[in-house]
């Protein structure tokens, strides 16, 4: 409990001081003025002591109760409303100022709250949060400051319980994909439409021939039996494996000031979308991180089923990129050691042209057994610099430098591709869509 003077008490002290100063200016005896001030202060102290005892007794007889209603988890950059109930079960009316100690990484808005809480009543309090960082966030007990019953003091108590919740990557892209896939409108977010019926590598079913079907897929035995053209339909091959190799080094700490977070946050968002797509297509999904201290590395063994997405999120949601160098070759060796079955390896990083020699050696090692999709995030600021108007001479230098940097980076990146050219070089907000398109390309081409 904290004890503070109320505004009423402060105003009373100012009034006494003002009266004493006025009396001295009117040439009243200083001794008489001093005695009057001491007497008034003594009365004030006695009243404050009585008021404190009275208020403290009333509080302990029926303290206020604070209960929050929290979601099971938060999503990075997604604003949520926190509702809570403040209950007064006593017979006293309280004038309060309330502040809930939400984690600073949640950027709470709408606090503190002031209210009059009547006897045997409750108040519904509400404020908003918007997570700025993944991981676990803590809600500490709240502070409630009440005016004493005699209005001479303010007493501050901690009420409520400590609660923790995880902050997951933003699932907006996953939920939107699921909704658009149901509505067959994936092109709205840039994902290429499905191929014609009959394409693919695995047999799916027999169906009646329709204009546009390939005559190569006509099943003549079924056609003769049904007395109408019947074709064999195929689907993309299932029961394959997708493993995400995620860079957690210093390059992934790049943050361009958007609500979705750093490049690493965007890489996790893209990972979750592609994992959802692969699991829905019947493939198994796993993950391995690199570029962090050994004790911070995460590994997720490949598994199937839509429940896998929740398990993968639980493993990766709180990992943070570190200010360390990412060793691609060690990461490739670690993956080769723990996973021998041929898989599609999705390597997520932030590439620079000086990384080419080391990354090339790692890719050659991975490609000796696996199919590799190299995905790199490209800074948005680089494009913005090349597109800026040339209003001053320094702008010409900046534009030329940006073009030179982009060309050197692009040339080095393209040299890393093999004949299948499975690579993505995209700005953060486009990464998820490009990864899904490349995944579909690999599946339909039977590259695995």
How do you describe this structure in short?
The chain is an alpha/beta fold and 448 residues long. It is built from 11 helices and 18 strands.
Description:
By secondary structure, the protein is of the alpha/beta class. The model is unreliable at 194-198 (pLDDT under 50). Strands 1, 3, 5, 6, 8, 9 and 10 form a seven-stranded mixed β-sheet that branches. The protein has a six-stranded mixed β-sheet with strand order 15-14-13-16-17-18, sandwiched between helices. 37% of the residues lie in helices and 26% in strands. It contains eleven helices and 18 strands. The chain is elongated, with a radius of gyration of 33 Å.
Show the helix and strand layout.
Elements (H helix, E strand, L loop, with lengths): L1 E4 L1 H19 L4 H32 L3 E5 L4 E2 L4 E9 L5 E8 L11 E5 L3 E9 L5 E13 L5 E7 L3 E6 L3 H11 L19 E7 L11 H7 L3 E6 L5 E7 L15 H18 L3 E7 L8 E5 L3 H10 L11 H11 L5 E6 L6 H12 L3 E7 L2 H7 L6 H23 L7 E4 L4 H14 L4
Parallel strand pairs: 3-10, 13-14, 13-16, 16-17, 17-18
Antiparallel strand pairs: 1-9, 2-4, 4-7, 5-6, 5-8, 8-9, 8-10, 11-12, 14-15
Helix pairs in contact: 1-2, 5-6, 5-11, 7-8, 9-10
């Amino acid at each position: 409990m904290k004890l503070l003077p109320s505004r009423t008490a402060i105003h009373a002290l100012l009034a006494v001081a003002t009266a004493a100063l006025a009396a001295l200016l009117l040439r009243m005896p200083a001794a008489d003025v001093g005695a009057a001030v001491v007497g008034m202060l003594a009365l004030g102290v006695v009243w404050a002591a009585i008021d404190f005892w009275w208020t403290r007794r009333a509080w302990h007889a029926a303290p206020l109760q604070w209960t929050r209603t929290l979601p099971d988890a938060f999503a990075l950059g997604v604003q949520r409303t926190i509702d809570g109930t403040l209950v007064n079960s006593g017979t006293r009316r309280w004038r309060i100022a309330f502040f809930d100690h939400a984690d600073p990484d949640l950027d709470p808005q709408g606090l503190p709250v002031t209210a009059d809480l009547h006897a045997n009543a409750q108040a519904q309090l509400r404020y908003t949060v918007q997570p700025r960082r993944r991981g676990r966030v803590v809600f500490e007990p709240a502070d409630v400051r009440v005016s004493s019953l005699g209005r001479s003091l303010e007493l501050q108590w901690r009420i409520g319980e400590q609660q923790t919740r995880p902050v997951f990557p933003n699932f907006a892209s996953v939920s939107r994909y699921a909704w658009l896939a149901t509505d067959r409108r994936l092109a709205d977010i840039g994902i290429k439409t499905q191929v014609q019926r009959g394409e693919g590598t695995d047999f799916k079913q027999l169906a009646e021939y329709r204009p546009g079907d390939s005559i190569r897929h006509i099943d003549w035995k079924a056609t003769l039996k049904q007395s109408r053209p019947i074709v064999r339909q195929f689907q993309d091959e299932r029961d394959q494996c997708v493993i995400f190799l995620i860079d957690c080094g210093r390059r992934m700490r790049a943050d361009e000031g958007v609500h979705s977070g750093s490049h690493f946050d965007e890489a996790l968002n893209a990972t979750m979308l592609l994992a959802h797509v692969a699991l829905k297509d019947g493939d198994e999904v796993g993950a391995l991180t690199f570029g962090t201290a050994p004790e911070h590395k995460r590994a997720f063994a490949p598994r199937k089923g839509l429940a896998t997405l929740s398990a993968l999120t639980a493993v990766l949601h709180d990992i943070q990129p570190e200010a360390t160098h990412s060793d691609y070759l060690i990461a490739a060796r670690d993956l080769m050691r723990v996973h021998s079955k041929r898989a599609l390896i999705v390597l997520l990083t932030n590439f620079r042209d000086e990384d080419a020699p080391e990354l090339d050696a790692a890719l050659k090692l991975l490609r000796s057994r696996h199919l590799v999709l190299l995905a790199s995030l490209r800074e948005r600021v680089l494009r913005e610099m090349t597109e800026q108007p040339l209003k001053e001479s320094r702008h010409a230098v900046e534009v030329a430098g940006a073009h030179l940097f982009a060309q050197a980076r692009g040339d080095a990146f393209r040299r890393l591709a093999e004949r299948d050219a499975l690579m993505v070089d995209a700005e953060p907000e486009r990464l998820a869509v490009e990864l899904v398109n490349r995944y579909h390309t690999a599946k339909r081409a039977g590259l695995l």
